[in-house]
Amino acid sequence: MIEENVKKLLKEIPEKNPFGEKVTLIAAVKLQTADGINSAICGGVTDIGDNQVQEFRDKFDLINGTPRRHFIGHLQTNKIKYLLGKVDLYHSVDRYNLAEELSLKSAKAEVTSNILIQINIGNEETKGGFPLEEADEAYRKISALPALNVEGLMAMLPFDRDEARLRSLAKAMRRKFDELNAQGANLKYLSMGMSGDWKLCIEEGSNMIRLGTAIFGERNYKRAVSE
């Protein structure tokens, strides 16, 4: 079923967004078994995203092939050491002290960490990230840190049935992405869109989407993940 879901999605997801940029599908693998993740890879997934450090560590050597590894969840500074040199792209750099600690530890380990700056586009108290109006300053300060490479922005749209509002927020994210690039930022990725809103996000300029439920079905939070 998982493999078939991926194949169906890959046919449905446009190769490029309206801005001519390649759209990348990331399988969000929170609470999924290694077998389930490997089935997604068999279906054509090339990028997988973990939300939790412990899951990333436990399943790292059980994943087939060489998919690009993303960390897409909230990251505590004391757990950075478990990810260094193993994560291709950190999506959730949502505060300065995380960026500073990731920079410090990356430099000490002699690696460069590729990151996205998380923007709290809906100004939601339950979500991390910089307010949109602070995006320029956040980029300026974080991009100046050693051993970090800012490759783009990440955002999560609110859970809202008001499509007009969601489109407005998505447009604002794309506008900021383009403004930063016009100022010389050279950002590559706008990571925005999950199982419930990925179509809208691509239409408004996202080039990287993070899908879990659409691939694996509803998560069973009561079931312990075992290998």
What does this structure look like?
By secondary structure, the protein is an alpha/beta fold. It has helices at residues 2-12, 34-43, 53-59, 96-109, 135-143, 163-182, 198-203, 213-216, and strands spanning 24-28, 47-50, 68-71, 89-93, 113-119, 148-155, 189-192, 208-211. It has a single domain, classed as TIM Barrel (Alpha-Beta Barrel). Helix content is 36%, strand content 18%. Strand 5 (113-119), helix 5 (135-143) and strand 6 form a beta-alpha-beta unit. The protein is globular. Mean pLDDT is 95; it is low at 223-227.
Number of strands: 8
Q: Describe the global form.
A: globular
Integer tally of domains = 1
Sequence of secondary-structure elements: HEHEHEEHEHEHEHEH
Detail the poorly predicted runs: 223-227
Strand content: 15-25%
**What's the level 1 CATH class?**
Alpha Beta
CATH-defined topology: TIM Barrel
What would the average pLDDT be, to the nearest integer?
95
Q: Measure the end-to-end span.
A: 19 Å
Structural class: alpha/beta
Residue share in helix:
25-40%
Radius of gyration: 17 Å
Oligomer: single chain
User: The biggest beta sheet, please?
Assistant: 8 strands, parallel
What's the total helix number? Answer: 8
Across the major sheet, the strand order is 7-6-5-4-3-2-1-8
CATH level-four homologous superfamily name: Alanine racemase
